[in-house]
Design goal:
This protein is an alpha/beta fold. It has two domains: about 150 residues, Rossmann fold (3-Layer(aba) Sandwich), CATH 3.40.50.1860; about 110 residues, 3-Layer(aba) Sandwich (Rossmann fold). It contains twelve helices and ten strands. It has a six-stranded parallel sheet, sandwiched between helices. A four-stranded parallel sheet has the order 6-5-7-8, with helices on both faces. The longest helix is centred in the N-terminal third of the chain and has 18 residues.
């Protein structure tokens, strides 16, 4: 039974294409695994929706993946992870379900020497306080200050991750946030949205060399590997894994924008449109 279970794919879902940055990290670390990715592109973005709506959408998206047959669920959306991870774990137990917030919080605590940690995310993620809570649970002495940076999502999807416009927007968001820490400033900046790594160049330019950028993708992938290996559910390493893509709207745009997030070309013909 366990052998057959190990052959199932890992399910990954996001509100759109941002979670493809997490998928890229998963594939780098677990190249033998198959993945089933779902982007809820018909209802993106989640970051401006109410917690009730996000939780409902998350349960529906997770259900679509579970019905296809998966051995683990990765919630690659920070907003959905922040407001609905407990609900998803309860709904789909004993299926392992992990989000990106807790691994990201762990990475932030490891990266910060001073404990001054800045968090940028969507409005819903910031308002929910998930990163602040997760970081302070791991490191009670931390000074965590968050700010919503919704415009970064649009810049990332337009492919404007670097250049004058991206840097101007980054400066508008980051300078007031960093000033809230006082003279010392933060030494770590958590990218609390899967779109934000696309803007890494602009963010590094504005934040400066003394601030470490923390992306939860790699830490999430490491947690997935730990759970799969611990349960004896990893695929044989000699094989090459596959990815199947699903979206709830507009295969062409998913493929075009998603290619830059994944780091390789996606064909619109390879994106299955489904209804939740």
């Amino acid at each position: 039974m366990k052998a057959r279970l190990s052959e199932l794919p890992v399910g990954v879902f996001d509100s759109g294409v941002g979670g493809l940055t997490v998928l890229a990290a998963l594939r780098d670390l677990l190249p033998a695994e198959d993945f089933l990715y779902l982007g809820d592109t018909a209802r993106v973005p989640y970051g401006t929706k109410s917690a009730e709506s996000v939780s409902r959408y998350a349960v529906q998206a997770a259900g679509a993946l579970v019905r296809r047959g998966i051995k683990m669920l990765v919630v690659a959306c920070n907003t959905a992870s922040a407001v609905s991870i407990d609900c998803l774990q309860e709904c789909y137990q004993p299926l392992p379900v992990i989000g990106v917030v807790r691994p990201g919080a762990k990475a932030a605590c490891c990266a910060s020497a001073s404990g001054n940690i800045a968090v940028i995310a969507t409005e819903s993620t910031v308002n929910g306080g998930a990163y602040k809570c997760a970081i302070e649970n791991l490191r009670p002495d931390a000074n965590v200050i968050s700010a919503p940076c919704q415009l970064f999502v649009s810049l990332a999807e337009e492919g404007w991750g670097s250049g004058d416009i991206a840097e101007a927007v980054a400066r508008r968001y980051l300078e007031p946030l960093f000033q809230r820490f006082g003279e010392d400033g933060p030494d770590s900046l958590v990218l609390g949205c899967t779109h934000f790594p696309v803007l890494q160049q602009a963010l590094e330019s504005v934040a400066g060399p003394n601030v470490r950028l923390v992306d939860s993708a790699k830490t999430t992938a490491q947690e997935v590997e730990r759970i799969l290996c611990g349960a004896g559910l990893c695929r044989e390493k000699e094989r090459q894994g596959r990815v199947n893509f699903m979206a709830t709207d507009c295969a062409g745009r998913f493929a075009k924008v998603g290619s830059s997030f994944l780091g390789e070309a996606i064909s619109a013909e390879d994106v299955e449109i489904i209804d939740l």
